[in-house]
């Protein structure tokens, strides 16, 4: 692992995660290049700021579930390649029902240079601490649709309230939100604002 990065589960006791891009449950329909294990990595600074958010959520009766953190540049490159491949329909209904995969970049859902690759972005949601159930947010992770935007119409009042709660927790902890994706947050003060890393997320120890 690159110096300055950590496995978030090692430094955030009680955190839950499901690294979607290490699984078959993502918009490409298979594990993505660079995701060799189902764990989530981030900078030390990301971890410290997430700890603040985790503590805020806990006071309110919630926990954090993480979907993605550091993203190798090779994964971003794979997303771009995938967006140009012929449509096979396998993940369209779940992840991009109203657009073509070629439109994902133009509409802001996939970046050619991602804040995730700088190591200080996180995709996440809330779950209830008492039941463990995910909090309804009016749309799943990586649903590339206007309904995923902050302030979107077409979701319930409770779902809107839950999105605002997550946003309040994250922004007051030191993160910036992203208009197009209710689940995506980036550190306000990134340690590597101009560096895009490409080391794989692996169980192998790097010196």
UniProtKB/TrEMBL annotation:
The keyword NADP does not apply. It catalyses: D-alanyl-D-alanine + H2O = 2 D-alanine. The active site is at 181 (proton donor/acceptor). Signal peptide: none annotated. Keywords: Cell wall biogenesis/degradation, Dipeptidase, Hydrolase, Metal-binding, Metalloprotease, Protease, Zinc. The record marks 71 as: Transition state stabilizer. Gene3D superfamilies: 3.30.1380.10. Zn(2+) binds at residues 116, 123, 184. Belongs to the peptidase M15D family. Catalyzes hydrolysis of the D-alanyl-D-alanine dipeptide. This is D-alanyl-D-alanine dipeptidase. It comes from Paenibacillus oleatilyticus.
